[in-house]
Amino acid sequence: MNSPFFVTREERVALARQRYFEEGILPTGVVSEAVFQSWTRCHRSSQKPHDKIEFQPVSISRSQLALQKNRTLHEAWLDEMPALGNALGSAHCSAILTDASGVLIGATPSGHLAKGIIPLAHRIGVNLSEEHVGTSAPGIVARTGKQASVLGAEHYANAVNTMYCTAAPIRNIQGQLAGILDFSSEGVPFKFDPASVVGLYAASIENRLLVAQSKDLLIVKFQFLPAIIETPMVAMLGFDLSGKLVWLNSVASNLLGISVNPDEREACATEHIFETNFSQLASLVGQGFQPQRLRNGLHVFVTCELRKYGSQVVQTRHQAEHTPDSNGTAQQSAGAQSFSTVSVLGQHEAYLPADSLRDADADLIRKCLGEHRGNVSRVAKRLKVSRGLIYRRLQELGIDAAHYKK
User: Fold this and answer.
1) Helix 137-144 to helix 33-44 angle, to the nearest 10 degrees?
2) How far is CA 214 from CA 99, 166, 201, 337, 372, in A?
3) Cα–Cα distance measured from residue 131 to residue 103, given in angstroms and rounded to the nearest whole number
4) Which alpha helices (H) appear in 70-117, and where do they start and end?
5) CA-wise closest residue to 143 among 93, 113, 112, 177
6) Average pLDDT for runs of 10 along the chain of length 406
7) In whole angstroms, what is the distance from residue 369 CA to residue 292 CA?
8) How much is the pLDDT for 1?
9) Are 128 and 98 in contact (CB under 8 A)?
10) 3-class secondary structure, 56
11) Quick one: angle between helices 355-371 and 387-397, nearest 10?
């Protein structure tokens, strides 16, 4: 540090740390504002850069409690972990999942990292919050709710300044921070852009979590191209059965200019987002990729799913039957395998939804009756349900099939 020249970024950061903590000189332009604010919080809490970091032993009961409290988030992580593990391959870094407070609840295997910090720090139940380990990427995200990177000497504690970490937030249907996905490398800087990769996988886990938390909701996925809809870049919305917007993911938030936080947005209904109403949107369940226009003027493709209480996400026609043509429109493949169709009408009748979904049922039945000239048998075949179910719905909805006979 006696040399007047500091060539590497690590040397410049280390000097900035020293001057800040010893002389109070602000590290302007050397570290990000998020890292600097974290240094300040750690300093105010009487932490010292030279303090030893203790990754406390974790009891079985404590680790089980952490998993139990975050069961749905952990299941979303488990669904994504095989793909995440394959993506990281031999990149010599570890991926971890923490809850909103920074308590670790999931980690990819790190057999190639048998010694050092990672085997101690990346255990279920270990607290990686700012209060326990000083400045770190998960700690900053837990504090700010925003994606962050902390590289090498940017860590507040000297004991962990060989770590390189980048973390991204995962939000729930209330728009609150639910978890944090982090990539960490020990002793070796990342040889790829960790921010873009961790952001994509955090979005994928978040989308799984949002769907899993949705009960009796219509889930609408949309994007400019159908091929993007089954990727982490999909925009997603969740509407209740009265057509009110309950949640949206970060991609939809960016496209629509609507906050993911319910407290920061006005009440929003289907008609405020799409140039259609809820009943018409609900009738698209299972119809594959359909063109729609947003109120902001954008033209997109949508696919709709209905998540009933106690059931899985259901679609009335498998999306694999539909492939985008050269113009981006959805068409059914000529040799596509015939997948069984599950109608909105046939899903858990005990959970009949509110009026808006009944309206959607009515619209769908009327449409099919018109197409098949009141032939109930053909309508049942078209919707892949029994004639008895159609007759019961006709009676419940007050629809006379004879009116559609010609």
Assistant:
1) 90
2) 19, 29, 20, 30, 34
3) 12
4) 71-88
5) 177
6) 60 83 84 93 91 81 85 94 86 91 87 72 91 95 96 92 95 96 93 94 96 92 94 95 94 95 92 94 91 95 81 40 43 33 40 48 81 86 78 80 78
7) 24
8) 45
9) yes
10) coil
11) 120
Predicted local confidence at residue 386, as pLDDT: 77
- Domain residue spans of the chain: 9-44, 60-210, 214-342, 347-406
Q: Tell me which residue of 164, 174, 170 sits closest to 142, measured CA to CA.
A: 170
Task: Determine the residue type at 259.
Answer: S
> What pTM did the predictor assign?
0.74
Q: Please answer whether residues 95 and 182 qualify as being in contact, where contact means their C-beta atoms are separated by less than 8 angstroms.
A: yes
Q: Which helix (H) or strand (E) holds 196?
A: helix 194-212
Q: What is the pLDDT of residue 346?
A: 44
> By three-state DSSP, how is residue 167 classified?
strand
Rounded-to-integer distance, Cα 208 and Cα 355, Å: 28
**What pLDDT shows up at residue 358?**
57
Q: Write the CB contacts of 58 (distance below 8 Å, at least 6 apart in sequence).
A: 123, 124, 125, 126
Q: And the tokens for 371?
A: 């197409």
Residues paired with 99 in a beta bridge: 179
Q: pLDDT at position 166, please?
A: 97
Pinpoint the alpha helices (H) of 325-386: 355-371, 376-383
Distance of CA 350 to the CA centre of its chain: 30
Which residue pairs, CB below 8 angstroms and at least 24 apart, start in 309-315?
309/215, 309/216, 309/348, 309/351, 310/215, 310/348, 310/351, 311/347, 311/348, 313/211, 313/219, 314/285, 314/342, 314/344, 314/347, 315/285, 315/286, 315/342
Q: Which CATH superfamily is domain 60-210 in?
A: GAF domain (3.30.450.40)
Residues in the chain: 406
The tokens for 222 are 């949309």
Rounded Cα distance, 73 and 336, in Å: 35
> Between helices 355-371 and 376-383, what is the axis angle to 10°?
120
